[in-house]
Design goal:
heterotrimer; A: 79 residues; mainly beta; Folate-binding fold; four-stranded antiparallel β-sheet; B: 163 residues; alpha+beta; Alpha-Beta Plaits; 2 domains; five-stranded antiparallel β-sheet
């Protein structure tokens, strides 16, 4: 179980967080349909460092920079 | 031994400020301090708990939602939420044990002292923890989960007494 | 030798014995002269005690009886308590006369990979093999009744976690505790000391075991927490470990939790897990009487038990010589020390030569069996075969550092040729390994601050013996628990299962409850030798948690029975109980399904309740619906992103039905949207979708819209919701609030029974209806007033089933049934409701060709049973029996207004197929009903009833 530093609460256990998606699969409201569909269905699925969106149960959304092999979190930013 | 006193929360308002609002200015307008992350402020009128990045709880009948909303103007909003929560007051020297039995948060840390507020999972329910002092801790349990939580805590040996 | 008549009574296979307090069951059995303890897993070979701790692979017994019984307990890992009942496993009719032992004779018929070979050929033959294999190979039986024990979970956080209470771990824990750190020390034994419990050393003037006790007291005095009888079994990311503390021994009834599962989050982890001794590989090395040298020494020095009368020591290094001295001091005759080295030398060897017959270049070839136990051995001494009589053979083929946790944590390994094995490399999570587990054996090096007196000189690293390939018939075991022999390894190589992972699966090497503790490195050396490669090139299998078996009860903890999953209760649960509600789980919620009267079935009750609503008035609890208030200057922008229907022109005090889409254009949820004030909105959602909707809306606000000046407040639990539906609902409600009620899709505020309420005129039933919202803690009086008024008007309460009947008749879709995640708004007949300009979540997804062009989509239809028979939910819709399904029934209901049966369904091109007759066919439930396709509304299609 990961220990994720919530920008608001500090380090908390993974069970308090929900994974949302990778940053490259965010669909903006004004994205063109083609771009939106690409973001939804064509993912980089990186072996290595990726940017992920998570939320903490306190209501904080965060962007994790996480190594998907080692699970190591190298950066966390509030969203 | 720690006892659990169970009752309604009484008056409870959610105060939400927009991102980018100046908290100090908002506090001045509202007329009470807005505690920092993970902290509570105890006032004569009640308590203010920071429960989220932009959310505070105003506990106690001394807060007037309409007046605060008016004072805040366009920097935030106030919503009544009292019906959704049950308060479980833990009284006794071993209250930290209950949190360690049912949760995964460092309630035994020296940093987890009076005035601490934490939002965490206890027995799978999203609860708000407010440390009052060495002998007292308030838990706010979502009303729908209260029966499940209390039954489990009783089964674990924590004693429920009439509030 | 100690007096054998102990004070702790116990039984083994029904026979009464007595042991000493602090003895393991294994020690007490050896003391009582019991050699045969178990039958092996596959071949049913006789087995005795081989090890002294959790690494015991063979001596598995069932401890306790009835509901308290715990199978597969290692006899070396259960400590005596009065009344302990131990039973042997995997033997019939008895341990001594085991029919299954014929497997041993027929062993050539069940070689490695036998199980897989049975997969070839016809399945019928495999079924026969399967039966035979299951019966023959096995461990103990789990009890068939509920476990009466309690199990607790407990979290703990620390600066430093030390795993292992041997000399290295104790020293590290005390050092950290005295430095003011929060320290937890975990030791799996009942006593601290680790290797000190089996060594004749003194530290700071005290015997090793007493020194360890003193250390524990000092750690505790410095504020550290010491958990004995606790095993760290798993090590995950970010220094999260779990450990299982046994508060009582296996099978032992007791007060409080039998086991505590600790969840540990640690800033730093220090592994002082010691080593596990390796066996030597020779024919019949599994006979009762053959044991690890360290285990024999532990029996002698810790328990005062002699493992036999005449002992041979066979070793490849100095360390096992200590066993000779320990046994001899207890009166055991040391027949010989067989040292595989050609010229062993040093102070220990010199001391041994002075007392014992020491043979260099000597090793066992074959153990000789007599009456299920060791009677002697054939050895090769300087190339010459020689026989020794012995009832105990203490062997040591080196030692393997216990690296399980280090590897689970992603740590690297470093091969050490001198030790013939692996040492821990860099820890990936900043964890360190110390003491013998790190290859440091000399106590003086581990305890550099202490005064260590070891009469036999400093301990040295136990080196492994070379691989011998003797032409001696018989079985030489590498994995004792899974009956894997050198022959099996060779067979696997011959048949092409050369990689260690393949060998493992083919031979079952390293599997079972043992996970290769004693056997893995021995087998690896054999495999490397067979392949002609260096040991590291042979590879290594994964170290998986748990390190030692963990009972299911410990994992479950308090989450069992009623607590298996959280149950959400309605604020009015007690009031529903008083009305005789029959509860049904709906997601995490318990909701009233119906309120049956005496003699009524659920179906009859639900139909009565639904008809009551159509005829007069009914009250239903809809508190579990999601409710969200969105307030602030930018609230409209947030609502517009989430909801796909128009709302900008909605007047304050008005509401409308709305639908929320996923980004792919499919319906995510539906509900009603209300404008409470110019910049304050209320959105309702389905009960099951409320949590998802809560998250979704904050995602839209914080991630997509970049923090608009608007807050989303989840008020689902704050407001209890009570729906009042039926032709008399408006009059009833107007009476209660003392004011006119709002028109359809309007709202008003008022008080009922002194409580403030909000009244929303919305309907899912097809009748004029209202939702009364009242704060949950004030809901009882309002509910009572509504129910009283409804009953006075000829109505009453209704449940979930009646609600479902009513909405099916009206053609309202439900999230999870019709909106099943694959249905677009157009599929559900809502295409026309969406905002033409887009701008909502999912607008891009809807432009995908497959959705834009409706052809071939499954569309919502109404289905009427032609002969009136009930339609099966989930049934497929086919033109003729046996054809590919063209759709399926999503929800079925009896006709409320009138007779017969109806349903909603999703049907390919359904909108164009009205009038068609299909079969609703469920082969699994033996139901086939002819249905006529029609519009998905059966009741008041124009909505005339919504207007007063």
């Amino acid at each position: 179980m990961l220990l994720i530093p919530c920008p608001h609460c500090g380090p908390r256990n993974q069970e308090e967080f929900a994974y949302e998606r990778t940053l490259d699969s965010v669909v903006r409201l004004d994205d063109a349909p083609d771009a939106a569909v690409t973001a939804l269905y064509t993912r980089a699925n990186l072996r290595g460092t990726d940017h992920e969106i998570w939320s903490h149960l306190c209501g904080q959304w965060l962007r994790l920079t996480r190594d998907r092999m080692s699970h190591a979190i190298s950066a966390v930013e509030p969203l | 031994m720690t006892e659990m006193l169970v009752g309604p929360v009484g008056a409870l308002l959610s105060l939400d400020l927009w991102h980018g609002t100046d908290d100090a200015a908002a506090a001045l307008a509202a007329g009470f301090a807005l505690p920092a992350a993970g902290r509570a402020e105890t006032l004569p009128t009640g308590s203010v708990l920071r429960v989220g990045p932009r959310r505070w709880w105003l506990l106690g009948a001394g807060f007037s939602g309409d007046a605060i909303a008016q004072a805040l103007g366009d920097s935030g909003t106030v919503t009544t939420i009292a019906g959704g929560w049950v308060r479980v007051q833990l009284v006794g020297s071993t209250w930290r044990g209950l949190l360690m039995d049912c949760g995964l948060i460092d309630a035994e840390s020296p940093d987890f002292g009076p005035g601490t507020v934490a939002v965490t999972l206890l027995s799978h329910a999203r609860c708000v923890v407010h440390v009052r002092d060495a002998m007292r801790c308030d838990l706010f349990v979502p009303a729908s989960y209260a029966e499940h939580c209390l039954a489990q805590w009783r089964d674990l040996g924590w004693q429920q007494v009439a509030a | 030798m100690r007096e054998h008549a102990g004070t702790v009574p116990f039984t083994f296979d029904g026979k009464a014995y007595a042991g000493h307090p602090g003895d393991t069951l294994a020690a007490a059995l050896v003391a009582a002269g019991v050699k045969l303890v178990a039958r092996s897993f596959k071949l049913h070979r006789p087995r005795g005690i081989m090890a002294a701790g959790v690494e015991e692979a063979s001596a598995l017994v069932t401890v306790g009886y009835g509901a308290h019984a715990e199978p597969n307990v290692r006899a070396t890992d259960v400590f005596l308590y009065p009344g302990l009942v131990a039973t042997s496993q995997n033997a019939w009719p008895s341990l001594r006369h085991d029919i299954g032992a014929v497997n041993s004779l027929a062993a050539s018929l069940i070689p490695a990979g036998f199980y897989y070979k049975t997969f070839f050929g016809p399945p019928s033959r495999w079924m026969i093999y399967e039966h035979f294999i299951r019966k023959a190979a096995g461990l103990g039986q789990p009890p068939r009744v509920a476990d009466p024990d309690h199990y607790a979970h407990r979290s703990a956080f620390c600066d430093v976690l030390v795993v292992g209470g041997g000399p290295a771990g104790l020293a590290a824990a005390l050092h950290a505790a005295e430095a003011g750190k929060r320290v937890i020390l975990i030791e799996q034994d009942i006593a601290p000391g680790g290797s000190l419990l089996r060594e004749a050393v003194t530290i700071d003037g005290a015997p090793g075991d007493q020194w360890a006790q003193t250390m524990v007291a000092r750690i505790r005095a410095a504020g550290g927490r010491v958990l004995l009888r606790t095993t760290a079994a798993g090590y995950w990311d970010d220094n999260f470990l779990f450990a299982v503390e046994r508060r009582v021994e296996p099978g032992q009834p007791g007060q409080g939790p039998a086991q505590v599962l600790w969840k540990l989050r640690c800033a730093e982890v220090v592994l002082a897990t010691g080593t596990i001794e390796r066996p030597l590989v020779f024919v019949n090395n599994d006979l009762p009487g053959v044991m690890l040298a360290g285990a024999a020494r532990a029996l002698a020095l810790r328990h005062g038990v002699a493992p036999g009368r005449r002992a041979v020591i066979a070793t490849s290094h100095d360390d096992a010589y200590r066993t000779a001295f320990a046994l001899a001091d207890l009166g055991v005759e040391i027949v010989a020390i067989l040292d595989s080295r050609t010229a062993p030398a040093g102070p220990v060897i010199d001391a041994a030569r002075a007392r014992f017959a020491v043979f260099a270049d000597a090793r066992p070839l074959r153990a000789i069996r007599s009456r299920n136990a060791l009677a002697g051995l054939d050895a090769l001494v300087a190339g010459v075969r020689q026989r020794f009589d012995a009832d105990c053979l203490a062997m040591s083929g080196g030692a393997s550092p216990v690296l399980h946790l280090h590897r689970q944590a992603g740590g690297a390994l470093a091969y050490d040729a001198a030790r013939g094995g692996f040492l821990p490399g860099a820890g990936r999570q900043g964890n360190t390994t110390i003491g013998a587990a790190a290859g440091i054996h000399a106590l003086a090096s581990i305890l550099d601050q202490a005064d260590v007196v070891d009469p036999l000189g400093a301990a040295t690293a136990p080196a492994p013996g070379p691989i011998w390939r003797d032409d001696v018939p018989g079985k030489a075991f590498v994995d004792f628990q899974n009956d894997v022999t050198t022959g099996d390894l060779a067979l696997a190589q011959r048949e092409g299962y050369t990689s260690v992972e393949h060998t493992k699966r083919y031979t079952t090497l390293g599997m079972g409850t043992d996970q290769g503790k004693t056997g893995a490195m021995v087998a690896l050396a054999q495999i490397a030798d067979l392949r002609g490669v260096a040991l590291p090139e042979a590879g290594l299998t994964t170290f998986r948690p748990p390190y030692t078996p963990v009972t299911m009860g410990a994992f479950a903890g308090p989450a069992r029975g009623d607590h298996a999953a959280p149950i959400r209760r309605l604020p009015l649960a007690a009031a529903h109980d008083a009305l005789g509600a029959l509860w049904v789980p709906a997601g995490a919620w318990m909701r009233p399904r119906a309120y049956p009267e005496a003699g009524e079935s659920i179906g009859q009750a639900s139909l009565r309740e639904a008809r009551m609503v159509r005829a007069s008035v009914g009250v239903v609890d809809v508190s579990s619906l999601g409710k969200f208030e969105i307030a602030g200057p930018d609230a409209l922008a947030l609502v517009a992103a989430v909801c796909a229907t128009p709302m900008a022109k909605l007047a304050v005090g008005r509401g409308r039905y709305t639908v929320m889409l996923r980004e792919d254009g499919m319906v995510m949820d539906d509900g009603t949207l209300w404008r409470l004030a110019e910049d304050r909105w209320l959105i309702t959602s389905s009960s099951g979708g409320a949590a998802r909707m809560s998250r979704h809306m904050t995602y839209v606000a914080d991630v997509l819209l970049g923090h608009p000046r608007a807050a989303v407040v989840d008020v689902g639990e704050h407001w209890a919701g009570l729906a009042i539906a039926g032709p008399r609902s408006a009059a009833l409600l107007a009476d209660l609030i003392g004011a006119p009620v709002p028109s359809h899709m309007g709202l008003c505020h008022g008080t009922i029974a002194g409580a403030p309420v909000r009244v929303l005129a919305a309907s899912y039933s097809g009748e004029r209806a209202f939702e009364v919202h009242v704060p949950g803690h004030l809901a009882h009086a309002v509910f009572a007033a509504l129910v009283d008024a409804a009953q006075a008007a000829g109505g009453g309460v209704y449940g979930l089933d009646a609600m479902d009947h009513l909405r099916v008749e009206k053609g309202h879709v439900v999230i999870g049934a019709e909106a099943d995640g694959r249905a677009s708004p157009a599929d559900l007949g809502m295409g026309g409701m969406l905002r033409k300009a887009g701008g909502f979540i999912g607008w891009q997804g809807l432009t995908r060709p497959a959705l834009a062009d409706q052809a071939g989509r499954r569309q919502l239809v109404g289905l009427t049973s032609i002969d009136g028979a009930g339609i099966c939910e989930g049934a497929m819709l086919v033109v003729q029996q046996g054809e590919e399904p063209a759709g399926h029934v999503t929800t079925a209901a009896p006709r409320v207004a009138g007779q017969g049966a109806i349903a909603l369904g999703l049907l390919t091109d359904g909108a164009a197929r009205h009038g068609e007759v299909l079969l609703a066919w469920s082969p699994t439930r033996h139901s086939m009903v002819q249905v006529r396709v029609g519009p998905a509304v059966f009741h008041d299609p124009e909505g005339a009833l919504y207007h007063d």
